[in-house]
Amino acid sequence: MPVLVASDLDRTLIYSAAALALTMPDARAPRLLCVEVHEARPLSFMTETAAQLLTDLGDAALFMPTTTRTRKQYQRINLPGPPPKYAVCANGGHLLVDGATDHDWHARVLARLADECAPLAEVQEYLAKTADPLWLRKQRVAEDLFAYLVVERELLPEEWVKELAAWAENRGWTVSLQGRKIYAVPKPLTKSAAVREVARRTGAELTLTAGDSLLDADLLLASDRGWRPGHGELADAAWAAPQITALPERGVLAGERILREFLRDCRGTRPA
User: Fold this and answer.
1) pLDDT single digits (tens) 146-200
2) pTM recorded for the entire structure
């Protein structure tokens, strides 16, 4: 039976230059590998050691990227190792099989959203009406499934985020603040549902996960064992669960540590 490893990507396994958290002296900084280019510019990185660990993991387990990114954004990433058989995009809205959308899965997701939460248009209208141009830079819709804002974080009022979260909660939506982005996502749109579907299809007897944001909490809870880095929304909230290990590492070195933990469990070499 295969081991299924379902991991968030951004700020979990891969990192923008702003999120690397290289606090050591420059001469001791790890060598980095660029894994994403956008508009001819390097955008996301992992350490070279992490790249080798991910390659090894691809041989030891069924590795499944599990991201809130759209399919187009995900396809910009060039991860080391074997191409993943499965990938989860749009926070569970799309399940990719050999790089192609599983349309049956997507139809099931759309049916749940129609039944269980307020429509996207209502959320878009609220965001457009209440967001202040002083700190709002972009308002976007992802895959016609959820909305997000790009903001000037230092100008963003904390109270506005709390008010948005309360408003969304009453309509079956959830809010997540990650770096310069605020996500408004329907509650039924979850990474965990897609991961359970892949576990069912593959007969995986062990599921390992990792993630850093509130949108990853359900993913972590759906696993046999999981890890969260020392940064991000979950760390800030001191979020914990019995099967989840909170790591001290922050930034790109946390991604390297997570991959080591995945490999130890896949190989059965964890100390007793």
Assistant:
1) 999 999 999 999 999 999 999 999 999 999 998 889 999 999 999 999 999 999 9
2) 0.92
- The answer to whether 209 and 222 are in contact (CB under 8 A) is yes
User: pLDDT digit string (tens) for 100-110?
Assistant: 999 999 999 99
Question: DSSP readout, the chain?
Answer: -PEEEEE--BTTTBEEGGG----S-GGGPPPEEEEEEETTEEEEEEEHHHHHHHHHHHHHSEEEEB-SS-HHHHTTB--SSSPPSEEEEGGGTEEEETTEE-HHHHHHHHHHHHHHS--HHHHHHHHHHH--TTTEEEEEEETTTEEEEEE-GGG--HHHHHHHHHHHHTTTEEEEEETTEEEEEETT--HHHHHHHHHHHHT-SEEEEE--SGGGHHHHHTSSEEEE-SSSHHHHTT---TTEEEPS--THHHHHHHHHHHHHHHHT----
